[in-house]
Amino acid sequence: MAEEAGGADDHAVLGSGIVGLATARLLQRRGKNVTIYTKELPPRLTSNYAAALWTPTATLCDPTKITPEFKQVFEQAARISFRYWNDFIGHHPTYGVHYVEGLQLRDLANPTPPRVVPPDFYGNVIEDLHPQPIELMPDQHPFEGYGARLTLAMRFEAHTFLFRTLNDFYEAGGKIVIKDFKRPEDIDALKEKAVIACIGLGAKEVFKDEHLNPIRGQLNILAPQADLRYSVGLSGASAAPRWDGIAVGNSALYGIWDTEPDMKLAKEMIDNAAETFSKLQKFV
Question: What is the pTM of this model?
Fold first, then answer.
């Protein structure tokens, strides 16, 4: 990156979400002077409410655009990313990066077809980086009439990571400028000649890039429950523990730019979770 910028020492990073802050810290570790330009600071960012699991293949790639070259770059990037984030786990709970267990249940009386992964799926090349799920035998769990699968995934406590990394950025001499960009000319006017844009949804307004396709997700955060240390999912309903609460329900809606919470959808997801998990109450 530094070579492409002509060896510049001064870099600008646009955006202060997880991607922006992580990028800024990588540059600082390489001896660069970094200024972050951002419209908002944590916690008023979409990053703060992300489901935040290490899932590099989750809904982000258009299968019609995948080429052999993409697969090669994807594997290299994923392996670098995996190693980078694993280094943070030793600092748990300082940065909020850790592994969390999950229990995926399925109603044996109403089975759904298993998900089939195509042999040419681009994510197959990093299958070795994911802990493999364990199918539990009936005598290994209390949920009679249900199949159960135990999973393990890397989780990011986004709020913790954002605040700690922001502090690290300040301590390393980083600067923050509150600024909203409206067009490419606003970026060209910056004094830094090396600029890395990490503005997520904001990129559409700035660059007028019609190829950007948003994936709207919505989580419902309930009060924390200290004794819930694993995620659980059944029939489309899910509950996942976070340090700041319990995330109930999830959605991935394509092509929707609106970031305002959909209260009708929120109620549907919570009602679905309540109805679904009430069926399991008799077992615990």
Answer: 0.85
